[in-house]
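Hi there,

I know you've been waiting on this one. I reran it after we fixed the sequence typo, so this is the corrected version. Both the input and the resulting structure follow.
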Amino acid sequence: SEKEYPELHRMVEELSREAGIPKPRVGVSDLNIPNAFAFGRTKRDARVCVTKGLLNLLNEKELRAVLGHEISHIKHKDVFVITMLSVIPTICYMIYVSFFWSSIYSRRRDSGALALIGLTAFLLYLITSLLVMYASRIREYYADYGSVELGNKPSWLATALYKLVYGSARADRNTIKRVAGMKAFFLNDPANAVNEISELKQVDLNLDGVIDEYELQVLAERKIKLSKSEKIMELLSSHPSTLKRIKALSNLVQ
């Protein structure tokens, strides 16, 4: 409630006003995994939820940057857009199941044609699924930019993303598995956090757990290196690599 978390509600209200949208409902999850997410079909029925793990991990500026990211998702109707796009691979998969398996048990002469239609639908399902995940990754970049447009410094959000990776890597594996169905809505993918830690050593130059503006300026002049496994993981994920997101934020430092 607002009485329990007055500062959280104040930040959401300020950011919503800056974004020109109604203040969304605010929720706090008991999850110890540090994360946040937004959902809702329209701006008027939108919700922003943060976990207790996030509140315990971030300072006020970092939390404000995360909330700005989620408010930006709401402003641009990202949840609705990705949900609508996800209908396409779902339809393709249903066609595949219907036609391909019908061809296996059918004694009709056109069973070969049915199988071909089913396999084509399955191929389209794979392609459109990858395209939906690509679109989701692009929307994450836009939401990061949107947070900066709402007055948050790139270093605040970069540090928040950095801390989320380390916080998620320490989280209980069973808890992460239980929330696997929600990860598309999260700020980052907690299941991939352990794999991302080694990549992020390129960013935190003094290893103090904070990404400051100087480190972002240095990063802006450098090329980042992602392992082959990380590139494959990103291709199959709804979220960009955290390292690439921080690299993109480094280009916004003025």
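Quick highlight: The mean pLDDT is 90.

Best,
R. S.
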